[in-house]
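Technical annex B. To support the medicinal chemistry partners, we prepared a structural model of the target in complex with nicotinamide-adenine-dinucleotide, based solely on the information shown next.
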Amino acid sequence: MAKSTKNITVLPGDGIGPEIVSEAQKVLAAVAGKYDVEFNYTEGLIGAVAIDATGSALPEDTIAACQSADAVILGAVGDPRFDNDPKAKVRPEQGLLAIRKALGLFCNIRPIRTFDALLDQAPIKADRLQGVDFVIYRELTGGIYFGEKGTIGEDKAFDNCVYERSEIERIAHLAFEAATKRCNKLTLVDKANVLETSRLWRKVVQELSAQYPSVEVDYLFVDNAAMQVILNPAQFDVVLTENMFGDIISDEASIISGSLGMLPSASVGTGSSLFEPIHGSYPQAAGKNIANPMATILSVAMMLDHLDLPEAAKDVRKAVDDALNSGFATIDVNKDEPQSTSAVGDRIADLISAEVSA
Ligand SMILES: NC(=O)c1ccc[n+]([C@@H]2O[C@H](COP(=O)([O-])OP(=O)(O)OC[C@H]3O[C@@H](n4cnc5c(N)ncnc54)[C@H](O)[C@@H]3O)[C@@H](O)[C@H]2O)c1
Ligand SMILES: CC(C)[C@H](C(=O)O)[C@@H](O)C(=O)O
Ligand SMILES: [Mg+2]
């Protein structure tokens, strides 16, 4: 049977981005060796590398390559040259926000789970982590990230937070549907005691809940949610929240999994879907072959599900678990016998090809 071809646009980006993305591609090569699929890659520029090469954080040809792809894999963007220059006119992160907007990626899905091999070394007591498995539905193309912003003179600045009903409804439907396929619980995280936008979120979610009678809905203020994520993470099933709260709560939740280097994400919406780790460009590790590639590899597993290759996705997740269980991991999750980024990628690829036993 002829192999089906998936056209993947790859945006390695900055810092550790190229290193972790090439490990994800190594894993995809193992998948292609085992299943009736081949991956055809187009590489694009985004972030600081794009600014250096073209002056823009998201060149037009990158947008076009993403729009025509079956899926997009992104490493990370960001560079200390820009982080430490508050006056910079063009910033790498603008490229990321712009590609999310250009592809209509209004829903960012960030699964939070534990890994058996990492339970004992987490800063949270292992008994609190038993059975933790939830997913954050983060709104990705609205709110304070995309509202009007500016400066007034030298010493005043503003960022407006705006949400429309339609922006809330479309992600809320996806979150409710996810809850019906999971444990039928949805928690809206907001700041409705202070913010008008949060009160709109609460009103819309309350109204929509009538369409999903099996789903139990509860509401948490974000400050309390930040504590509950650490205190009692097993209470969550689907967490629905706006753009900035989702950004913050998900980095916090990485403590549950063991490292920021373990958390994948999928961004979906009206155009091509995009798969990226939730972490950034970790510039301190760039070029050192020490960053954890598992978040990107697990993002690729989400991509395989999206491409209707669920068995391959399962293989990738199992290979990650097997690598962890045999102590084969980078320094963030294995201080005693750390392996390099590329060695971890090799191991996971070999486990998929079944060239090594777990
Ligand atoms: N999606 C993205 O591209 C994205 C996300 C967050 C931050 N950023 C950008 O990245 C740059 C650095 O930001 P930051 O330091 O706040 O966040 P970061 O996520 O890059 O790193 C924070 C810390 O998390 C750990 N970490 C992150 N990724 C890891 C990995 N793969 N393996 C092991 N440990 C890992 C490290 O301890 C690191 O010091 C900034 O320019 C920022 O704007 C980009
Ligand atoms: C780099 C930044 C724009 C981005 C965000 O805040 O969305 C990042 O933190 C993320 O979580 O993907
Ligand atoms: Mg973030």
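Notes passed to the chemistry partners:
The first strand starts at residue 4 and ends at 13.
The mean pLDDT is 97.
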